Amino acid sequence: MPASALAYAQADVRPSGTLAQSIDAAAQRLLGISDPGPKLVALIDRALPSGVSYDSAIAPWLGPQAAVALLDVSHTDGTLGIHGQVAVVIDQTNSDAANAAIANGALYTPSGGASPTLAHDNYRGVSYTEDVTTGTDVGVVGDYVVITTGASGFRAVVDAVDGSDSLAATSGFQRATNAELPGADAVVYVPVMKLLDALAPIGVGLGGADFMTTLKTELADAVIAGSARFDSNGALLDLTVSGARLPTPASQPSNPITTLPAGSWLALGATGVGNRIATAAARLVSGTAPGPGVRWLLDWLGPVRADLAWIDTASLFAKGTNLGTLEAGVVLGMADQSHAQSIVANLQQVARTAAAASASISVGPLSQANIDSGFTINVPGVPFTFEVAAAGARVVIALGNTSLNDALSSSDRLGDSAAYATATSALGSGIEPEAIVSLPDIVSLIDSVGVGVPARASTILAFLSHLGTVALGSGSDAAGEHVRIAISGT
Fold first, then answer.
1. Which residues are CB-neighbours of 213 under 8 A, at least 6 positions away?
2. Range list of H helices, 10-150
3. Bridge partners (DSSP) listed for residue 311
4. 100-117 confidence digits (pLDDT tens)
5. Closest listed residue to residue 107, CA positions, set 39, 42, 61, 70
């Protein structure tokens, strides 16, 4: 690919040996499919022109890897529409078979069922074919089959193959390669500054010139690297950002997910919440006048807006696989006890305002030994009472009293559970879980409700159940800032 590419992705498309075994094992664990190859071939056959099959036209020359790159973008004045020039480069092992596939139209998608209108050209000794209707150019370039949207893109790839500056030689791509997961089966690379420059007219239109200037300052050397690995453990996905000059945050408290109840099938945690809320609120009220919806939201939140800035951490949990055992709650870690009690008092004021506007909603007292203050909300038709309480430097908004007490308990915490240890191990060294979702438990809860599920939805639920537990976490090392997702499968 040419060095000027704005984004790049590569994947193994014809794995063999140990790699094929790993992908088959991942497909079995994640999807319940022991041999995904025939299903993929059937999908490819459906996408190919009538009378053309994968076995006859693609398999004889297809090599182990393929890549796609965004080479350029253009935009239409007065609109937000963008048009990209794309190149697809595929390893080929039999140039005669590859040229035959091009000649018989296997690599063209007919427009409206009509046969493509083809033209032929030559660049630096490389013959290629253009579909005049779609502007797609296809040819064999050395060890590759190259498909581009436009002749200039095809020629840029030919230049790179012949020795001109290529993406692989750039420092950003080399940094991205260093950030890849060991044994990655698929990789993504985005040189952020190049992409921002290409999209500058659209960015200025959306955020203004100052917005783009700030982004360019902070992201001048930023590179995004993505990679994925599939094996008998499931799938591991990693996104790494390096070279960004973002503001350094103040020291943050530990992620609160470890303090949530064990057995939660949904657990989310975040730090630095108050700063983010305060910044977002400031942006909403600054500059141009806020719209009616924003103004209503700000007015409605008026009593608690000042307190929101004091939230250090926020977490969410849900557990139970039927309505009888269902628990859920939001836990806010405040700067201190006084702010926790203040936000509960102000939330109660908001709740009373809502109750005054709707006589069916009622707000009542809540008093028990393990809280400092609180109140309850009853909503008609909802089989749960919402309980809001301040306990020390925490605010808990819970689905019923069992959820409240489980959130406040000091024993049987998620951080001490096997589920948390498994998620930590799956994400890898230096990555702390910030979200854990057990999809089979969610499916069990849906099944227990007893509501009829359409056939298509049943298929989706079965697929989700196979995916097992999903863990998301972040961390940093010498390669950059990581966001990683591990999907364990069942």
1. none
2. 17-31, 37-47, 54-57, 95-103
3. 334
4. 988 877 887 555 556 678
5. 61
Q: pLDDT tens digit string along 87-101? A: 999 999 999 999 998
Residue with tokens 């020039």: 85
Tokens 């018989």 -> residue: 104
CA neighbours closer than 13 Å in the CB half-sphere of residue 81: 5
Residue 92: name the closest of 102, 105, 77 by CA: 102
Contacts of residue 279, defined as CB under 8 A and 6 or more positions apart, other chains included, come to none
What is the residue type of 199?
L
Does the pLDDT of residue 275 top 90, yes or no?
A: no
Give the DSSP per-residue string, 284-303: HHSSSPPPHHHHHHHHHTHH
The Cα 50–Cα 72 span in angstroms is 32
- Please give the single-letter amino acid code of residue 396: V
Contact present, 25 and 36 (Cβ < 8 Å): no
Instruction: Enumerate the domain spans of the chain.
Output: 7-241, 256-414, 417-487
Q: Which of 316, 234, 222 is nearest to 267 (CA)?
A: 316
Number of CB atoms found within 10 A of residue 55's CB: 10
Strand partners, 186: 11, 228
- Selection from 67, 12, 10, 7 nearest residue 189 by Cα: 7
Kindly report which listed range (75-89, 170-184, 349-363, 400-414) carries the lowest average pLDDT score: 75-89
